[in-house]
TrEMBL record, chains A, B:
InterPro entries: Pyridox_Oxase-rel, Split_barrel_FMN-bd
UniProt name for this protein: Nitroimidazol reductase NimA-like FMN-containing flavoprotein (Pyridoxamine 5'-phosphate oxidase superfamily)
Organism, as annotated: Thermomonospora cellulosilytica
Pfam families found in the cross-reference section: Pyridox_ox_2
Superkingdom of origin: Bacteria
Amino acid sequence: MSQPALSSTPRTELRRGRARGVSDRNALYEVLDAGMICHLGVVVDGTPRVIPTAYGRIGDVLYVHGSTGARSLRDAPAQDVCVTVTHLDGIVLGRSVFHHSVNYRCAMIYGTPRLVTDPDEVLAGLRAIIERLAPGQWDAARRPTRKELAATAVVAIPLDEASVKIRQGPPVDEEDDYSLDVWAGVVPVRQVLGEPVPDPLLPPGIPVPRHVAALATTGDLR
Amino acid sequence: MSQPALSSTPRTELRRGRARGVSDRNALYEVLDAGMICHLGVVVDGTPRVIPTAYGRIGDVLYVHGSTGARSLRDAPAQDVCVTVTHLDGIVLGRSVFHHSVNYRCAMIYGTPRLVTDPDEVLAGLRAIIERLAPGQWDAARRPTRKELAATAVVAIPLDEASVKIRQGPPVDEEDDYSLDVWAGVVPVRQVLGEPVPDPLLPPGIPVPRHVAALATTGDLR
């Protein structure tokens, strides 16, 4: 736990639900390392655009990638972006409509993106993104050609300014409502990975690699 | 299928991956009605902010809610927002790093939010949000008091300007790569709901209502 605490800037200071804020850098890593897609917020022509995209993390840098032709990435380095990773963990059913909620873990990162130009960092960033989706795939799949790399933009966002919010547990109801004849509790939500489905064009005799088979989870809820 | 087609404006015209675009209004409804949280993008002090939040839909209007004290909602009516709902359906493992992808369904909505002031519409909007999380809960839980309503801001966003992108199926690899000795295919991803967990403070003798028990899914992947 020797990591520096998360920054508190006007953007990341939690105004609402302050009790749910977590100022531990390891909590940030945990939320990021448990996800596969983020929602990247950019401003284009004065209006916000929220784009789901894959991401990877190396230390205190988040990487996203896209086509060099994609406008949102091409414009992004000119201005700050917001990256949000959210895990929905449960539906919280209170005794009153007002106290319904969801259990979740959420990380929000603000930063000025940097277009990665160093070839080694481009490869490292791409590797982090692929390995986030499927650990082991970088070594299994064919590496990018020079032409493929030229068509790929990799953007780095520093994890300097971030906030983490976590809500877990049962509903918090009004004192008077606890005696109501209304069921209250949590319906857990979980993302599960299923058995790998081979590409119909896969030649016979290529088995599911161990690192891919390992992705499938049991479907049991924790 | 008598719905009007989705609009094509400069913001919703799909520049990248055009083949994945869907211009059917029913597809928009399906993506929205399959989700529980959206990512709401607003611009605050010139920078984007991406906030996960619950939502509901009534016809061609999307509703989100929040505290009347939350800055993102308070400021939202002054400017356009972007609402994105994403379902991650699979990890697409190609034969090359370059052709890795994810299967997903994604709706992006642009619009000028309207702060709902009509009391009936406030209730209808809240009901839509609650019922999206847990159908049947509106009639089961205590309705909001006047004080609770005063603390709740409901915002309506018209579904006039939206795009839907869907990617499903196996990887699409380079012709030369199909002969490689590399496994390729899809690892399905699904969100599952588990058995309801009663609030520890629930008095004995209050059974899980049928509409709550019905939320739990089997955990089987489709």
